[in-house]
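Need the bound structure for pyridoxal-5'-phosphate, inputs here:
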Amino acid sequence: MQEHASVDLENEPVDITRFTCQEGDGLWVGIERALDNGYGSVFTTDPAGVVTGVVRLDQLRAAVRKGAHLDVIRLGDLAVKWDAASNCETLIPIVDEKNRIIDVHIQPESKFIPVSEPDLSHREFRNLVDAYLSTWISSKGEYIRSFEQAWARRVGVAHGVATSNGTVSLQLGLAALGIGEGDEVIVPDFTFAASANSVIHVGARPVLVDVDPDTWCISIDAIARAITPRTRAIMPVHVFGRPAPMTEIAALAKAHGLLVIEDCAEAPGARYDGKPIGSFSDIACFSFYGNKIVTTGEGGICVTDSPDLAARMRILRDHGMRPERSYWHEEPGFNFRMTNLQAAIGCAQLERMDELIAMRRRVHAAYETAFADVPGIAFPGTMPARCEPVVWFSCILVPARERPALIKACREANIDLRPFFHGLSSMPAYHHFGGPCPVSSAVSASGINLPTLRKVDTRIAGIIADIFRRVLTSS
Ligand SMILES: Cc1ncc(COP(=O)(O)O)c(C=O)c1O
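Answer from helper R.:
Posting the output first, comments after.
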């Protein structure tokens, strides 16, 4: 413990109720508080506020596995004594002369900082336990219906069809649109491979085109140049939360009689021309993988305004069976269903979506401030006023030749950075689907995703900026 005199002024005083429980509190109080404060541990105190120990989620998990919740268990019985000598703790209690907790010093850098982690609170936990206890753990249940309706409402469209992941959402959407053998779908070169893979998996051909240097999203001119008599659809991707020019893409598609299937995996909450992304296309698809803005662990959803497409996707999602006639298959379908357990988590995440978006924006702003005087780096340019991006991963551009050294130096400091996706056409699996894409190649070679999670504060941003400064000025 640190004494009052050594309070670290770098840290603003925090609300200590988020980090403490009474010794006499039950197991679940500790679980919920450790989830909600985002650091996975809580201090136990006696009735006078004196710190008596610390409890971590790992211990709480072990206690649950052993059935400790069957006894009347006090959190104090699980707490381990706080080790004042240890300097590798994330949370350090600051105490007064009577050992009463008055503040908490937070040093997230004491543990590995991943590039991303799911942000889970007591709300997801309660929903999940509720779904479990209902025994509706498969793909029927109230949470699925609620999640589909609430997500569609949030995007501003009529129907939502939840799936087991974002990739199969794209595959389901393409299949429902009747895209297959002999068809071409125009896809940006700069995206996660799932966008192109889904086209390949329905038997069609992805045509990879370059992206715009300002938005990093599919270029309108490149789409126009790539249209052939075989083109059936355009698949814009709102990469890293940055909205593609959907009004223009929808107009171009209409002029050429093409379908639009929007890959919104990385950008829920972003808007274009005042409308949520996902509301511009025939079918729009989202991913709820663990690193996404909203997560269900694994999961995805297709949204559409068309009742016919929604009905067709429901049938294809469920083995091609008609809902009103058991075991009657109209055509071979898939099993792409989401479970009620995933949807239970999704409902709580959706309630928290604005908070989750704001958290990522705050993290990005902390990086912008910390990196203000770091030479040789750039953040993505401000988008035109018509675009309202969200932050999925905070992104930074660095000289391509310095990128490996920057990533290595941060790894040595226990901080995980990710290089951007490779341009798809640069990889053997996709060579034959696209010509040269110079913008995609340049962005891909110089971009880094910075850790984008609740734990990143001005202190972490400052540590990463210092590492960048050191590497970039010594080269
Ligand atoms: C642009 C894009 N499309 C599709 C996917 C696929 O989603 P999932 O991982 O849920 O299959 C992802 C993310 O993983 C993605 O980033």
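Comments: The two ends are 41 Å apart (CA to CA). The domain at 2-106 is CATH 3.10.580.10 (CBS-domain).
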